[in-house]
Fold each of these.
Amino acid sequence: MGNGRQFSVAHHALHVWEVEGSATPRRAAAVWMPRRCRLDAAPLPSACRAVAVCVPPLPSACRAAAVCVPRRAVAAVTAPRATSDAGCGVGVLPPSGRFLVRSGSGGDGFRTSSRVVLTEEVELTLLRSELPGLPRREGKVRDIYDLGDRLILVATDRLSAFDWVLPTGIPDKGRVLTGLSAFWFGLLKVPHHLISIAVEDFPPAVAAEDRELLRGRAMLVRKARVIPFECVVRGYLAGSGWKSYQATGEICGVSLPPGLVESARIEPIFTPATKAETGHDENIPFSVLRAAVGIEVAETLRSLSLEIYQTAAAHAQERGLILADTKLEWGYDHRSGELLLVDELLTPDSSRYWSAEAYRPGGPQPSFDKQFVRDWLERSGWDKSSPPPELPPEVVAGTRARYIEAFERLTGSSFPWK
């Protein structure tokens, strides 16, 4: 859809409609997004397409703008009970129905006998959010808004791999991360930063029309001074841990028995790492963490992190999943100084989940995370030093399916935006 920003609000899909009853078949797409967002509809992928932008709240305050490409014609799709606001209103679009289609240069009237039928559905992604008036900074995946003593963490659908943020997002990935984090924060009996994921609880500084953009993908949290180390716990030999074991027989200075194979189960170990805003986190021995934060804090971080891993691993096992490893973050409450569990928690982005049924030690395991994307990138011929390629639709769909399956297995609930 050209260079337009990609948003998904009231629905998670781009609805593509065939307009019948005209000399030239037309295709129209309806995208629902916040009022201040603009969609650049050109160049469109094929001739004779119209793009309608519909704005919440629906249906009474809908707006639509449409552009049809061939011969610079202008086309608009409007519902029978359209509002007059913005000239071209679109109500909640049904799977089929009678619509008015205006064609030509905008002055030759309406074809009133056209019928619009839903023909395909394409997932949309949120690659970047904007909340006007709020200080914003951007991480690899999250957009962070400062409210003073609180933050709003928006989990976008961005995906990073090999130190690059990929140009292709994974639809609803941010909602999986937010939903799973909220689930785990609620399950674990550990002080944490989460206040609410319900947009109705967000402060007035967040405009009502922007809240739909955030629904399901944003957390209102207590501000914390983050400890600049990742607290990694490993229960299986995989990833950088496996590479380190092959080279030295150790991971972060922790000696392991000889003769272990890739993906072998091990007694859970605490293996901290530096926290990098860009690039790779680097594994460090516990002694480095202890020297940086003090003996008491380091011991507390290790003890709590191991406890969380063991609780979460037991829950995952009951749901047919193996929690191979996870990465936790901690911080001190901005006001009280209380130690809090912060950031995301036990998601497919911060953890490695495997199928218990398919588990076979001695090699890599199929996983419910972005490893599916990493494997495709490895096979694609990309050199990892130039900008990464767009992901093909089948890789996007496969990755989305894996994230959603992890959500549903772990929570025991159906994914709301499935």
Amino acid sequence: MSRQADPGAPHRGSEISGRIALHLLLGLVLAGSLAACGRERTRPADLTEEMVDAQITNLRSEDYTVRRCAARALGRIGPRAIKAVPALLRALEDSESTVRSAAGIAIDRIDPSARPHVLVRAEQKGAFRP
């Protein structure tokens, strides 16, 4: 005796095709996101300024991971974060070596011409201590 399919039940084939379509769509979205990661994105000046101000505030956080991430974020913003350089110079004296390192890298990305000044200041202030 053969079994007949319930006309109201979904077909197994359509369920599999739906999953395949979903996976393809997710793959395309992921591929687009990965492709965009390498591109420099421009932001409106006012948004960048707000981001810089927020990260300057974060450089004063009690949590060293927040301070480190703030320095890294400012470095990624680049030359548009020039007003953060004084705060990053202070971060060269942080008690955490990872924050000091991130601040030095950020300053170099924001204003490469400041590199000699940063190295001298960091050495004078003992920023290279472990």
